[in-house]
Every structure is written in structure tokens, then in C-alpha cells.
Amino acid sequence: MLSCLQVEELEEKLLDQSQEVERLRSELGATDLEKQLELLVVENQRLKQELKSCRSSDAAADSCSRCPHSQDAESLRREVSRWESQARQRERRLAELERELLEKSSRAESLRRQLDDATRQLEESRRRHGEAEQKLSLRLQQCEDELARQAAAPARVKYVSQPVEVEVESADSQRALAELQAKNGGLQEQLSVQRQLLRELETQLHESQRTCAQLRTQLLSDRGRLCSLLSNTVGKGNSEVVRRLSKILVYEGEMERAQGQLEVEMQNLEEEKNRVIEEAFIRAESEMKAVHENLAGVRMNLLSLQPALRTLTCDYNSLKRQVQDFPFMLDKAITEAKQEICQVISDVSSTNQELLRKYKREMNLRKKCHNELVRLKGNIRVFCRVRPVSQEEQDSAADAKTMLSFDSDDDAILYLANKGKMMTFELDKVFPPQATQQEVFQEVQSLVTSCIDGFNVCIFAYGQTGSGKTYTMEGVPDNPGINQRALRLLFSEVTEKAPDWDYKISVSMVEIYNETLRNLLGENPSDKLDIKMNPDGSGQLYVPGLTEFTVQSPEDINRVFELGHMNRATACTNLNEHSSRSHALLIITVSGFNSATGNRTQGKLNLVDLAGSERIGKSGAEGSRLREAQCINKSLSALGDVINALRGKHSHVPFRNSRLTYLLQDSLNGDSKTLMMVQVSPLPGNMSESVCSLKFAQRVRSVELSASSSSSRRQENSSTSSSPTHDSVEVTGILQINIHIINTRSNGDAK
Ligand SMILES: Nc1ncnc2c1ncn2[C@@H]1O[C@H](COP(=O)(O)OP(=O)(O)OP(=O)(O)O)[C@@H](O)[C@H]1O
């Protein structure tokens, strides 16, 4: 009996271990499961061994015991051995089922791996599809941009061969698409094969489970029957058997419960597996759907791109043709343009020649006209400038009220109230006190520029001391007079005429004091200079040792004036007094050469600030003052005589009578032009000197008028006033000028 119970126990253990195997299989991974299985197999072997030894000991016990139910025992033993054989069969069957289960689980594992592979491939294809889509959309954008750019850009820009690139990339996209489609098809096929395989495996698993369940049910029913048989056989008195049977029943109950749990777990696992497969399937389907949609989108895009591609190809071909033709067209256009340019150049050149010819003709004509005009007008004009009353004079003198007034309608008339009488003076131009340096220069600048054309010009400032001669000629530093303005104007004029004309402007500064000539730009201004006949036989005069500065920039002009002033100041003790008693001459020589025509010109501009013209001699001056007065008188008288002789076309012109006229001989002769600027003080105290200066100017004009009114210009004798066309002009008490000039009344250009 004990052996039977042991057998039962061992069977139970075996069953438990089988269940444990099942449970572990489901719970653990493949490797762990295998290990556990191995351990269980070893344990199983051990138990079998134990069973075997029990049986042998049982047999031994049977042979020596004297059991009263030996027949029953025998039959039971047989029954046990039958059950044992059945148990062994079931064990074998169980082992087979385990093997099958193992195979199925490995099959399921490989299917899972395949599913993972398929999922990975799907991911990969999705990624590649995304890339292809991105690329395609990029290309589409480029195509659109290119279309827009080509539509907007000018024809020349369209020569870029972009459409070829578009075509190549579209083929790539199509190829990628085809590959994707093929891959998708392959994946779908694989998926369906896997599904089929899974279904088959599931069927097999179900069948195995069903068989297993049947076997277990059968085992249980056999056991039940065995138990009832045992209880009937042994009887109620055998409590040990009952206990063991009840234990067997408990075990069986536990086995059933474990079996139920196993089934539930298997069911759960099955459901989980189905759910995972379903999810993977749904995911794969949705991805497939997305891939299909993308494919459809790509196809649509391709379809919409095709017309654009066709247009681009057409454009490209036409542009290609244009590009091919372009070099020929360009060559042709260049040749035509060259011919046109040559034609235009030759036209311009001939026009230039014609213009140059006309210009020369006009220049000659202009010079002729100018000479004629000068001949008609006379080449001396008389201007008058009234200086303003200074603030000091206004403050100090009670009778600072001016006695001079002007005609608002006629700028050549000056009125002077003297001793209750109103005197009227008519000149070429009268500058009121408010006239600016610029306005004065405006009136004389045509005379200044005529020396560029080769004329000799003399501008004299005449008047009593303090009447404004130096102000008009030199000016003040911030408001320069005629000297500086003339030099700057000449400089800018000759600069404008370059490069046709090459001009040289040279400057000398001279002072004549007591009939002595001083070189104001020389190193030693106190040295006396002499005037000599040029030894070259030209009959021209020259001053040996006279310094000539060539001015090349406005800065040079400033330097020249600074040096002249400095030398004049160092040569005397009182500059103001000295300047009143001496004549200051600025001699500007302008020499020009035209390289195109070969013409040469030379003109001289003499700007003279004369010594004061007041009647000092009458007041009985002595010594050096008397000599100064005599010298001034002599030179001013000589100037008047020379002008008179020149206007009267006298055979003899007394240039040598003074250093001033001798020095200016070249510039007073021939076609030269002269302007006498008579300076007048407005103060009542200077009125008698002002009257003298104005009478001088007036009479000069009267003499001119009477000369020009006669139909023929007569040669006049400068030494007598008996002729009605002669006017003996008493300028000062000392100075007697006999002058005959042609009347000029013009505010405009002397030319
Ligand atoms: N148009 C004018 N506007 C303003 N100030 C003037 C003008 N004319 C002369 N003056 C001023 O009057 C004063 C005398 O002028 P300036 O020295 O030029 O006379 P001048 O005739 O040259 O005398 P001198 O014979 O002694 O050289 C100077 O202070 C000068 O600045």
C-alpha cells in the first residue's frame, strides 16, 4: 500500500512539475525556460529512479509479508502497473506535447522576429518615403521658383539650362517611388504569408490544447475511479488510506485550479498576442494607407509638374537657340556700332575743324570789332568813386554831412553842393559810397581780361590823399580790391582756357618815389632801378633787375602781395605818409601760347595807385615835402600830357617826361586801354579838392565829347589850348594836364 501511495505522490510531483514547466515557459524567456526545463528533466529522472527503487522494495516486502488480502493486493498491483503504464504513456504524450509547444513557441518567436523585421522594414520604407517626399517637395518648390524667376527675369537671364536638372531629378523621384511601391508590395506579401502561418500555428495550438485537456480530464476521471475503488477495497477502517486519498483529492483540486489558471493565462497570452498582431496590422495598414496617399500626392504633383516641365523645356530650347544665335547677333551689332561710331567720330572731327576755323575767324572779327569799338569810344574812360564817411569822421566832425548826391536814374551823374551852388558832373560811371569792391570790379573786369587777348591795359586810381585810392586798388585783407581780384580772375580765366592755351602769368611790383624806381619784390627794395631800351633791337623798354614772379596758384598771389607790402613798409618810416607821396604799380604780364594754332599773345595789365593829387605846392611847402610835391606834380602832369598826345595822335608823345609815363610807355601806346578811377572824399572839409578832382574828370570827358562830335578825328597839339577842341585842365594848383580824348560813355565792356 505504501508503495502505491508513493507512486501516487511521485505522479503528483511529476504532474506538478509539468505544470511548473508550463508556467515557467509562459513566464520566462526562451533561454531561461530551457534552463528550467533541463533542471526539471533532471528532477524527473531522479523521481523516476526513486519510484523504481520503491517498487523493488515493495516487491521484496510482498514476498515476505503474509497479507490477508493478497489477491486483492495482487489485483491492485496489476491495476497500479496498468495505471503506471498509462501514466507513462501520458507522460510520453505530455513530453510530445511539450516538444510541440516548444516548437510552436520557437515558431512564434521566429514569427515575432519576422514581424519585428517587417515593422523595421516598414519604418525604413516610411523614412525613405518621407525623404523622397521631402526631396520631391523641395524639387517642386525649386521648379516653382524657377518658373517664377524665368517668368520675371529678362530674356537674357533665361539662358540658364535649369530645365535639364528638373527632368533628371523627376526621373529620380519616379524611380524612388517605383522602388517604394515594389517594397510595399513585397512587405504586403510577407505580411499575408505571416498571417497565414500564424493562423495555421494557432489552429495547431488549439488542437494540442484540446488534446491536452481531454487527456487531463481522462486522467482525473481515472483517478476518481481509482480512489473509489481503493475506498471500497480498503474500507472505512483504514484511515491512512482515506487520509492519503483525501490528500490526493486536494492535490487534484489544486492541479485543477492550476490548470484553470494556466488556461486563463494562456487565454490572456493568446489575447495579448492577437491584440499585438492586430495593432501591428492596423499600424501597418494605416502606414500603408499613408504611403498610398503620399504616392497619390506625388503622382498628382508629377502630373501637375509635367505641363510646367514641358513649358520649361520649350523655353529652354528657344533660349538655347537664342544663345546660339547671340554671338552672331552681337558681332553684327558690334560691327554696326563700330561703323556708326567711326562715322560719328569723323563727323565730329570735321565739325570740330569747321568750328575751329569759325572760331579763329570769329576771334579775328572780335578783335577787329573791339579795335573798332575802342577807336569809336576812345580807349580811356573815367570813373568816379565816392568813399563813405567813416565812423570816426562821423563822430569827430560836426559837419560830417556829405555834400554829394547821386542821380537815381543815371549812374553817371554826380551832384555836389558847393558854396550854395549845386554842381553837376557827368562821367562814365559814378560809384556811390555804398558801392562794394565787387561791384567796382565788375565794371573793370572786362578791361582786365582783355589783357589775356594780348591788350595792354592801365588802370589808374587818382585823387587826393585819403580819398580811397589804396582801398579801391588794394583793398583790405577781408575785402580785396582790384589788384587781387584782377590777378585771381586772370588766373581762373587762363585755367579755363587750358589745355588749348598755355598761359604764363608773371607779376612785378614797383614804387616810384621822387622819380626813383624801386623793385618791391626784389631782395633789396631800397636799390634804385633804371629803365633802358631792350638790347634785342625790338625797340621795347625793359627794367634791368626788376623781379618777376610767375604765379601758378592763388596761394602764390597771396605770397606776392605779402612780399610787396613788407618791402614797401621796410623802405620807409611812415607807410601811410609814404604811400600818399609815391606811386605804386602792380605790373601783370600774361603770355599765352596755343599749341593747336601756334598763336602767341602777350598782354600787360598795369594797376597804378597814384600819389595824392592835393595842392600842397600852393601852401608853400619846403624841403623834402616840396621836392615830393614837385615830383608828384611832374609825374601827374606828364601822365596827362601823354594821354592827351596819344588821344590826339600826336607825332610826339612825351613819355620820357616822367618815370611813370616812361615805365608805362608800352602799356599806354597803340591799342592799349586806360581807365582813370577818380576817387572823391564826401567830407565838406575836402570839398575843394573833390571839386578839383571832379572838374578834372569832367573836363576830360568834355574834351572827349568835343573830339568825338567832330566828324573827323584830328591831330591835336598838346601844348596849347587855343584850339576849341583842346582843353587845358587844371587838376591841381601844380598840375596842368592838356588832354584830348575821345568821348566814351559806356557802362559795359570796353572791348
Ligand atoms: N569805399 C570805401 N569803403 C570803406 N572805406 C573806405 C573806402 N574808401 C576808403 N576807405 C577808407 O578810407 C581811408 C582812406 O582810404 P585810402 O587809404 O585808400 O585813401 P588813399 O587815397 O589811398 O590815401 P593815400 O593817398 O594816403 O594812400 C581808409 O581807412 C580806407 O579804409
From TrEMBL:
Sequence ranges of Low complexity compositional bias: 705-723
Kinesin motor domain: residues covered: 379-703
List of residues binding ATP: 463-470
Alphabetized InterPro entries for the sequence: Kinesin-like_fam, Kinesin_motor_CS, Kinesin_motor_dom, Kinesin_motor_dom_sf, P-loop_NTPase
A Pfam family reported for this protein in Swiss-Prot or TrEMBL: Kinesin
Keywords of this entry: ATP-binding, Cell junction, Coiled coil, Cytoplasm, Cytoplasmic vesicle, Cytoskeleton, Membrane, Microtubule, Motor protein, Nucleotide-binding, Phosphoprotein
GO CC field: adherens junction; centrosome; cytoplasmic vesicle membrane; kinesin complex; microtubule
Residue ranges of the region described as Disordered: 108-134, 705-727
Coiled coil segments of this chain: 170-218, 252-279
GO biological process, any: microtubule-based movement
Membrane protein topology class: Peripheral membrane protein
Gene3D superfamilies in alphabetical order: Kinesin motor domain
Main location: other
Subcellular location: Cell junction, Adherens junction; Cytoplasm, Cytoskeleton, Microtubule organizing center, Centrosome; Cytoplasmic vesicle membrane
Single Gene Ontology MF annotation: ATP binding
Keyword set includes Membrane: yes
Family as reported in the entry's similarity comment: Belongs to the TRAFAC class myosin-kinesin ATPase superfamily. Kinesin family.
Reported function: Minus-end microtubule-dependent motor protein. Involved in apically targeted transport. Required for zonula adherens maintenance.
Protein name: Kinesin-like protein
Source species taxonomy: Eukaryota, Metazoa, Chordata, Craniata, Vertebrata
